Amino acid sequence: MDKLHRITELKRILQNRRTPITLRQLTEQMQCSESTARRMLHSFRDDFGAPLGFDRRRGGWYLANAAPEGTNELPGLWFTTAELHALLAARELLSQLGPSPLAAETAAIHAGIERLLAQRGIAPADITQRVRLQAPGMRPCPGDTFALITRALFERRRVRVRYLPRGRPTAADEPPRDISPQRLTWLNGRWFIDNWCHHAKDLRRFAIERIQTAELLPDPAEDLPQADLDARLDSAYGSFTGPPTATAILRFTPERARWVAEEQWHHHQQASWLPDGRCQLSLPYARPDELLMEILKYGPDCEVIAPPELRAAALERLRGALGVYAETDSR
Questions:
Q1: Is residue 73 domain-resident?
Q2: pLDDT value of residue 70
Q3: How far is CA 241 from CA 26, 152, 185, 202, in A?
Q4: CATH number where 258 lies
Q5: Residue 215 belongs to some domain of the structure
Q6: Helix (H/G/I), strand (E/B), else coil: 120
Q7: Is 283 exposed, middle or buried, given 0-12, 13-18 or 19+ CB atoms closer than 10 A?
Q8: If you average pLDDT over every residue of the chain, what do you get?
């Protein structure tokens, strides 16, 4: 019987008893030596964090503060090896996504999973060599700011921030804003805080890396219905807030179509195949900026069909890019 099975048997024995069990009784039930039983008790307490106590008067072991049946499971005890591998890989990905407090908060879980894998003869250190996350364009945000925003989010408190929108050189002229955090969003390699801005009296989505200062306030955060958040923040493509103003219709060449058909640009998108092998993608958007950047990266493999203003904007940017190269080649 391996160690994990012995720990499982020990847990079952202790849970089924109403009185402490002596070491001798335990060796008889587990059919092992006293030294093995003692090692299992110590591992149960130290490695698995079990609430194990010892009654000196009765000379026996017991589970202290045991939860009702079905709720006192050992962390990770019922995971298969494959599931433990997946959890450790997920933790490694999270630590690479950052910011650093995220890795710090999951350190205890990481260590517990490593112990469980080690008990099964698996080297958890291999995970760091086998898992890599590459996210070009990712914008890391300050760990202290992320931690404060996260705390305010779950404690339901307001935060006073000084926010610097993209394209503005300094935050000196930006007034402080009191915000009520609603939820965290990971989008296109960036962390955002969806919030109710008391300064603008409206919903806003702030990129956390653009928050220059943040102060936790004692005031309770204002809660908004989830349906309102979904309608205002998730109904259109990209990070901009607001309901959709138009629907983009894009056509991709047959060479690119097989890739795009497997991508999700937006959860309300609609994709269809054309007779000539091209793929047509329709999706709602509120503002064209981010969508245009996504479209233009496909170059000649993507054509904007509608609306006319989006097609004209794409054409203008393509002409501008061509003009830059024309000027360079003529020098």
A1: no
A2: 40
A3: 63, 21, 13, 10
A4: 3.30.70
A5: yes
A6: coil
A7: buried
A8: 81
> Over the stretch 183-222, which tens digit does the pLDDT of each residue have?
998 887 788 999 999 999 999 999 998 999 999 999 999 9
* pTM across the whole model: 0.60
CA neighbor of 21 nearest in space, from 5, 4, 40, 2: 40
Q: Which pair of structure tokens corresponds to residue 17? A: 């008893």
Q: Which helix (H) or strand (E) holds 35?
A: helix 34-46
- Residue 27 lies in domain: 3-63
| CATH number for the domain that contains residue 56 | 1.10.10.10
Domain count, the chain: 4
Residue 237: how many CB atoms within 10 A of its CB?
A: 23
Is the Cβ–Cβ distance between 159 and 179 less than 8 Å? yes
Closest Cα partner for 9 from 41, 34, 53? 41
Q: Are residues 306 and 254 in the same domain?
A: yes
Element (H or E) spanning 229, and its range?
helix 226-233
**Structural domain includes residue 229:** yes
Are 179 and 112 found together in one domain?
no
Q: Kindly provide the b/e burial profile for residues 71-99, where b requires at least 16 CB atoms within 10 angstroms of the residue's own CB.
A: eeebebeebeeeebbebbeebbeebbbbb
Q: Which residues of the chain have pLDDT under 50?
A: 1, 67-76, 78
By the 8 A CB rule, do 161 and 211 touch? yes
Statement to judge: residues 104 and 57 lie in one domain: no
Whether residue 310 sits in one domain with residue 255: yes
Measure Cα distances from 313 to 26, 229, 230, 287, 305 in Å.
Answer: 77, 29, 28, 12, 12
Phi, psi of 204 (to 5 degrees): -140, 155
Q: Domain check: are 221 and 254 in the same one?
A: no
The answer as to whether 72 is a domain residue is: no
User: Could you say which of 207, 233, 259 is where a domain stops?
Assistant: 233
CB within 8 A of 281, min separation 6: which ones?
248, 249, 250, 251, 252, 260, 265, 269, 270, 271
Output DSSP code: residue 106: T
Place of tokens 């000539």: 276
Q: How many CB atoms lie within 10 A of CB 186?
A: 9
Residues 157 and 213 in one domain: yes
